[in-house]
Amino acid sequence: MENKLYESQHEDFRAMCREFLAREAVPYHAQWEKDGIVSRELWRKAGKAGLLGIGVPTEYGGGGERDFRFPTVLTEELIRAGVTAPGFVAHNDVIATYLAERTSPEQRERWLPGLCSGELIAAIAMSEPDAGSNVADIRTTAVLDGDAYVLNGQKTFITSGENADLVVVAAKTEPKRGAQGISLLVVERGMPGFTRGKRMEKMGWQASDTCELFFDDCRVPVSNLIGKQNAGSAYLMAGMPRERLSIAAVAVASAEKMLADTLEYARTRQAFGQPIGSFQHNRFVLATMETELTIARVFLNHCVSEFNAGRLTVADAAKAKWWTTELQVEVANRCLQLHGGAGYLKETPISREWANSRVQTIYGGTTEIMKELIGRSLGL
Fold it and tell me: In the prediction, which pLDDT does 143 show?
């Protein structure tokens, strides 16, 4: 099916992304997966190529492009190339957005050029050992003391937690107010009292560095507060539709890649003297996935267009996130099954995609939370 979402400038950008990744990422990615972390050099090269801070104003070194189709193209090409995506998606589509839209001119001058050049890598820290989807449950606190907040607490499952130079931390500045007493603070590498746990070993996304973060009487200057005190929950909620749309883009691109790889395998792998794709059951499985992914792509493209027009609702972003990520998991299961024993080998692309897919229904808000949001939108 012809994809009518993109125009010539987006396809030109796609070609540039594809060439960059083929040259600067693909040859080294296997080593990064063994290392458990992407080289910082790739970030600097990505910044030089204009792949970071796509939506950041040009005066700070960004692309100044608010069209969400551009970061979506980059996401699709990261997936197509088999390059670890979570850190880049979070850096570009989540954190850079917060820092471009919610910060003061002084803060933007201080942080945005580095985020766009790749000299600074960013992470966002919300999840805690006892707090996931419900931000009201977070225990990390920030107590105002003169010209600084004294930050205490622990964050976990932090994407780019090891590589990060700037971490947007959600903390309670007025604990008695629950979710209405949360603020966002930027913690910078080297601040006393800020330490990192050991790198977490995950089932998937092996090259995406993930770790725990610890704050022990970490003094964060008041000048590192994002926006207004106690407005952090509102800022996070406002940014969720974009984050969930980014996750949906990863889901659809990943599922499309798995299906394309499996179709090729089904055409060439022989069993009982014929291609395995020629058996009716297998043909029906492939036909089902093709149909489901066509529908998913149409809805994703619709949501991207709605986001660009400023009309994407919380409910529609939740629909896109839960439907596409659950479909991604299903496609991964079916495609691995069609690969048979070969699909179970760790080095095969379908094996890696299967492992990468599982977290998609969890982070950015679980499927259950997405359904709850949609249900509330129905007045229930």
Answer: 98
Orientation of helix 314-339 relative to helix 232-268, angle to 10°: 30
How would you label 200-231 residue by residue, b for 16+ Cβ within 10 Å and e otherwise? Answer: bebebbbbbbbbbbbbeebbbeeebbbbebbb
Which parts of 49-191 fold into alpha helices (H)?
69-81, 86-89, 96-101, 105-117
- Predicted confidence (pLDDT) per residue in 237-250, tens digit: 999 999 999 999 99
pTM for the whole structure: 0.96
Q: Which residues pair with 166 in a beta bridge?
A: 122, 188
In the structure encoding, which two tokens stand for residue 19, read together? Answer: 């060439």
As a whole number of angstroms, the distance between CA 245 and CA 64 comes to 20
140-151 residue pLDDT tens = 999 999 999 999
The gap from C-alpha 53 to its chain's centroid, in whole angstroms, comes to 14
Token pair for 1 = 């099916």
Question: How many helices (H) and strands (E) are present in the chain, helices listed first?
Answer: 12, 9
Catalytic residue among 128, 243, 256, 353: 243
Instruction: Enumerate residue ranges in the chain where pLDDT < 50.
Output: none
Pairing, β 274-275 against β 270-271: antiparallel
Cα distance between residue 150 and residue 138, in whole Å: 16
Catalytic residue check, 243: yes
